[in-house]
Amino acid sequence: AAKAAGKSAYRTCTPALRESAVSRAELIADLRRAVDEDQLHLEFQPIVDLGTGAVRSAEALVRWRHPRLGMLPPAKFLPLAEETGLILPIDRWVIHEACRAAVTWRGRVPEATVAVNIAAAHLRRPDLIATVTAATSAVGLAPRALTLELTESALIEGTEAVLERLHQLRELGIKIAIDDFGTGYSSLSYLHRIPATELKIDRSFVARLGTDDRAYATVQMVTRLAGAFDLAVVAEGVETERQHDAVTAIGCPRGQGYLYGRPDSPATVGQNRA
Ligand code: C2E
Ligand code: MG
Ligand code: MG
Ligand code: MG
């Protein structure tokens, strides 16, 4: 009976597997065309001063308008992009497009910076500096108006060459944020080595603020650490008034989350919301 069940499971399973393999290959082919055919677009999410509500920055978040599947969030295609190396042209496009858009909304919020997520693969490329400086100079964006967001895992595998590149970026005035802080190997020794300017406290801690004392202690500790290291600090994923009150009470100076604004078109950055 077990054998029979196994056999029928095998039979019903195979077409599904084959189907998903095909759609994966198709998706890779589609992704290859996405940049050239202008199917990617960026949304921007505000990062605000928690005291005044003023917009301090906006993070560029990529979406893919797939011709048949509709709008895809990054989680649906970035892993594939990373596996295939297609993340490099995508991130290059994102950097250029984010700088171009930032120039338009910086008219409304003059000192605001634009934050761009950078994949680990890109950090390993010597041409990252050239890509970034080409983007800022093409549109006349001051390098200090650009923040590159890197994850702890991307940084931890960083070689001396990566470290040197980060220092060069800093010398150009470009800012460096550590994204999703607390979810990777938040080691104090690398905080000493990496020339970061900002920590972004992962939203998993912010989400548990009202219910988990350890999450509260974590947000408090990271906020203090950032203060002591003279780093900017942002609480990610603030969704409720209660979370807002908690991060404010802790003394975290900046926040990002649905409570302050969802990712939206560049035209909405710095516009007064109802
Ligand atoms: P991230 O850099 O940590 O970006 C924040 C993510 O949290 C975004 O998801 C944003 O929409 C979401 N978010 C913001 N506020 C809230 C909130 O209050 N509640 C909840 N539940 N979520 C919130 P998104 O746009 O789906 O992006 C996911 C991840 O994909 C990003 O995480 C980033 O790691 C990556 N990503 C996005 N755009 C790019 C890109 O252009 N290049 C690269 N390499 N990675 C990107
Ligand atoms: Mg980010
Ligand atoms: Mg994050
Ligand atoms: Mg994240």
From TrEMBL:
<feature type="domain" description="EAL">
    <location>
        <begin position="24"/>
        <end position="274"/>
    </location>
</feature>
<protein>
    <submittedName>
        <fullName>Diguanylate cyclase/phosphodiesterase</fullName>
    </submittedName>
</protein>
